[in-house]
Amino acid sequence: MSSAQTGGRKKSLFAALAFLVVAIVSVVVGRGGISLPSFSSSDSSTPPREHVFVKGAISPESEEFFKYATESDVFTVLGISVDYDVVSPQDMMEIASSPSSDYDFVMPALDGAARAVEAEDKSTTMTDADSGSVVAFSTPLIALVYTDLVDDMQAKGLVADSGGNKSLDLAKLNEMSKDGTRWRDISPDFGSPRVVDVAVPSVRESSAALQYASLIRAVGKDAGGDDAMQRLLVGQGHGETSTQGIFDAFLRLGQGEMPMVLATEAELVAELFQQSISESGTKLEEYTPLTLDPGALLTFTVIPQTEEGETFAAAVHEASLQGAAAVQGYRTEPSSVFENFATEIDYAPLDLPTQQRPTPWRDYEAILQELG
User: Fold this and answer.
1) Pair 174, 223: CB distance under 8 Å
2) Across 271-352, where does the E strand assignment appear?
3) Is the pLDDT of residue 24 over 60?
4) Burial (CB count within 10 angstroms: exposed 0-12, middle 13-18, buried 19+), residue 185
5) First to last CA, the chain
């Protein structure tokens, strides 16, 4: 390793740490009347809150944020102690449909699920957002694939180049799956007999996998059939319950075991940062992120269930919490927080998917029933 590389890692570390420290200090000192640059639009000059204890039900794809914010004492600085349970999308809906004293807030990652919770009626999914709900952050779904496969995938029409970002054509993926196309048919040098697919975590446990299933279901129906999910999702044999879990497995396993995996941009950015400050670890240059076509965005919405939950929701846009979200790779509110962090670590953000109508929760329920 060259001294230039080592220096680059140190620079990335110091820049990112300074980024988060300034975000936290701007909250603490700002309350004392001293003005510092803020990474969010919240009013950091508000009086200190009394210490609040809250418990939330969160999706697997937001767990890394809560771990990081807890370990970095970001919640403590804001006068909040946060306990949480990681729950499946179905359990999230059951918790929210019958609010109990066990949870002060729920934080679904699926926009359609959030709308259903806000309406307090699973059969009424398209409503205006509840005034107490707050979008905390978001992240697009991506596929991560070995870079040496990309040119062959592009030659076969599975990958498209959209001016800088490369995208995975899910309709073509469905077509290839239906035809039984194997990786060796796409890339003879690879030679794998596996049928082309994207490795995904459990659809029942992972919000990201369920969102991906809705995309696969849609392209399957557009192609005149609805068996795409059975071919591309059932029987993969992966036991991970989140994209973080299967992303970590992808980095551990060889190309023959898992050529392409479902992930989120947040996981990619967080790993890029960790590897930029580490002397070891997998070189992410070996992999290429692909946006999905059609695409999807996980949107993490805090929906209060109690007064304590409302306090937590009100704190979500504080500079320190948004700074912690950015360090974990999430698209922040406002977007400038993430953009500033991306600049510090020399990351070029992926194109966001075109804004689409949220998938109604009843469609997700139908997917879970179809997959058994």
Assistant:
1) yes
2) 287-293, 297-304, 331-332
3) no
4) middle
5) 50
The SS3 call for residue 332 is strand
**How many residues in the chain?**
372
**Angle of the 3-30 helix axis to the 335-344 helix axis, nearest 10:** 150
* Whole-number Å distance between alpha carbons of 3 and 7: 6
Cα(206)–Cα(120) distance, rounded to whole angstroms? 22
pLDDT over threshold 60, residue 160: yes
E strands, the chain, are 52-58, 80-86, 105-107, 134-146, 159-161, 166-169, 260-264, 287-293, 297-304, 331-332
- The closest alpha carbon to 82, from 255, 298, 269, 316, belongs to 316
pLDDT digits (tens, 9 = 90+) for 32-57: 332 223 333 344 444 555 799 999 99
Nearest-Å Rg of the Cα atoms of the chain is 21
Tell whether pTM > 0.90: no
CA distance linking residue 83 with residue 105, whole number of Å: 11
Mean pLDDT for the stretch of residues 101-130: 67
pLDDT (0 to 100) of residue 22: 54
pLDDT at residue number 18:
58
Neighbours of 352 (CB within 10 A): 15
C-alpha–C-alpha distance, residues 130 and 123, integer Å: 16
Strands 260-264 vs 134-146: parallel, antiparallel or unpaired: antiparallel
The tokens of 95 are what? 């918790």
Query: Would you say 330 and 192 are in contact if contact means Cβ atoms under 8 Å apart?
Result: no
Q: Which residues pair with 86 in a beta bridge?
A: 58
CA distance 69 to 278: 21
Q: How far apart are CA 324 and CA 80, in angstroms?
A: 15
Q: Which tokens in the block code for residue 310? A: 């409302």
Q: Which position has the token pair 């006068």?
A: 79
Tally: H helices and E strands in the chain: 16, 10
Q: Write out 235-284 in H/E/C secondary structure.
A: CCCCCCCCHHHHHHHHHHCCCCCCCEEEEEHHHHHHHHHHHHCCCCCCCH
Instruction: Report the amino acid identity of residue 187.
Output: S
